[in-house]
Amino acid sequence: MGDTGPCGPCTEIHYDHVGGRNAAALVNQDSPEVVEIWNLVFMQFNREPDGRLRPLPQCHVDTGMGLERLVTVLQGKRSNYSTDLFSPLLGAIERGSQAPPYQGKLGAEDAHHVDMAYRVVADHIRTLSVCIADGVFPGPSGAELVLRRILRRAVRFSSEVLRAPPGLLSPLVPIVVEILGEAYPELEREKSQIMRIVGDSEDAFLASLQRGRRIIDRTVQKGGDGAVFPVGVAWSLYRNLGFPLDLVGLMVEERGLSLDKAALDELAVQEAEMKVRNQQADEAPARLQLDLHSLAELQRQGVPSTNDAPKYSYTLEADGRYGKKATAPPQV
């Protein structure tokens, strides 16, 4: 998926929802009628930074199937959201909001973004539930920051577009558990914690959302540079209140203005470069890193792998602290 790393030729399986025709020209053309449901990548090369392809010491097949897309085919639907993996969630969202029923509209047909909001909330609550069950909580950095932005996007769409009262998201968690719990039993085990974290995070962001809405409204009332919303205000909403920029764009668009996305992208690039410089300044000299070809050569020469078993040999003391078991000296 990146510029370097393991890669190889692939074969893909695409499904034509129409059928009875030669749809080869529609493959990988973003057609909603012809969708990829499966692929297999024959991992046999490593693409080096200079672009060369070096044979891998070991070859593998990387295969992936889209569960929702396969269910769509099996149930004779045209959209993932029309299957029973999503329909119970969409029904619950309708009952918990003031929005009209879900109609599956896309693009220009979905003039007020209502159907998009249905899809966002249904998809995001599944993501939140599975991630929190796996121990990733909404937070300030890394994967936790991504999850926090996903939650805030769901809250914004439920509140602003679907006109749902506060607290829509948490009651959706048991429905996710009912749909996915058999495959992911950790969802059932962590259901109460997921509901609590989602509910608390939703309440906290709704307060920020109200504040951000007031800031946007005051800025619009003051006028300024024609139909373009001030970049500095948009960036402040993103950096200080945690508003994803796409949500700022939607809120601004609803008020008849637009965002200077190029200027915002430039600010994002500058901030990323600053983080890299600060990180490089703080880091100690990098340790030697062996690539997969070097590791394969060590194995060929009979150098044994490091025995990591001793670091997993521990006991839990009565006071909750970890203690080591008596073991032989670790091998390296």
TrEMBL record:
UniProt xrefs under InterPro entries: aa-tRNA-synth_II/BPL/LPL (IPR045864), Ala-tRNA-lgiase_IIc (IPR002318), Ala-tRNA-ligase_IIc_anticod-bd (IPR018162), Ala-tRNA-synth_IIc_core (IPR018165), Ala-tRNA-synth_IIc_N (IPR018164), Ala-tRNA_ligase (IPR050058)
Superkingdom field: Eukaryota
Cited Pfam families: tRNA-synt_2c
Enzyme kind, highest EC tier: ligase
Family classification: Belongs to the class-II aminoacyl-tRNA synthetase family.
PANTHER family per UniProt: ALANINE--TRNA LIGASE, MITOCHONDRIAL, ALANYL-TRNA SYNTHETASE
Protein name: alanine--tRNA ligase
Species per Swiss-Prot/TrEMBL record: Engystomops pustulosus
Lineage, broadest ranks: Eukaryota, Metazoa, Chordata, Craniata, Vertebrata
